[in-house]
Fold this protein.
Amino acid sequence: MRRVFHVDVNSAFLSWSALERLKADPDGIDLRTIPSAVGGDVETRHGVITAKSIPAKAFHVETGEPVVKALAKCPDLVLVKSDFGAYRRYSSELMDFLRTYTPYVEQASIDEAYLDVSEIENAGVPLADEIRNRVKEELKFTVNVGISVNKFLAKTASDFSKPDKVHTLYPEEIPVKLWPMPIGKLHGCGAATAGKLIGSGINTIGDAAHAELSILQSLLGKKAGIYIYERANGRDDSAVQYEEREVKSYSNEVTTAEDVTASNYESYAVPILKKLCEKVAGRLRKDGVCGSTVSVIVKTAGFRRHTRQMTLKNSTNDAGEIFAGSKKLMKELLFSGEGLFAKGEALRLIGVGISNLDDGQNRQMDFSDWIREKKQQEKRHKLDEMMSAVREKYGENALRKGR
């Protein structure tokens, strides 16, 4: 099933201005905790508000209103200048961070992006929560994440209650979450369009969804009528328009259904690790590349990520070799004297990655090693390709380990 995230920075310009001020004065006041706003000329107090803090909302300060009007509502409102150089830097950091999860990232504006996470196993609320928590911890600002099956519904979901929240809006949730909303809240429905619809008795998104298409078109025109009708029914087939970038690594990770501990590691985690290695190897073979640096990623129940990596003698796209390296790294990370299991930690996420890519031609071995390796590789590749083909046609659970 297609799965799309919409990531939206909460009060982006205000948050990023606050971070810049805290960098200059770590003991200063965080603008996000007081009534504050970005916009206008700070000296003359002219212009309009371009961003506001959550506390400023309590005084009904609105984005886009004149600074003079905002100050009348909140005389103690702290105003700061825009700093688009800093905003672009924070935006770039966010986009680079999001691309560590998937290359399918469409930057919709300086402070929002769509992610097509369909290829990530179990891509849902746990993954969105991880992204949200890591942005807050590592980048020091907050985001909302909307989840659905298309861009329109994901964006609508991300606009639900803020800040620092994850919301879903799946097709089955449309009657409860989308249809009761005022028609003016429909993305792409401007004030003039909403006025025409309200004047004809179409007050909610649900009203538009249940109206005759011909009526909407008679009110708004053919194209606009179709747009309102389709979006009101939650339909949007537009693709995530990601920028093609050079792939530098391949990885797969999965959030586990239960905690992984020392007691269930072999029976529960090792099969998951093997499956992840097979997926990574399959993607490498599909793209005709090999990698020489294997890495493992785990996330503890306390949301801390830990990684280990090693460089192989030769680059590979063989699932068995990647699995062998991953098991070795996991043993070091989890079972050593300073390992996570020795510290009483449990795991909720396991991942495997491979980087330092090449075409697999620069292998260093003698002739006998080459012959032996070639035969073993051919056998493993035929088996891996057969398993990949069967699973692609009949599903992930079509093949299971024999007993």
User: Anything to note?
Assistant: Residues 292 and 315 are 4 Å apart (CA to CA). The longest strand covers residues 249-260. The radius of gyration is 26 Å. The first helix runs from residue 12 to 24.
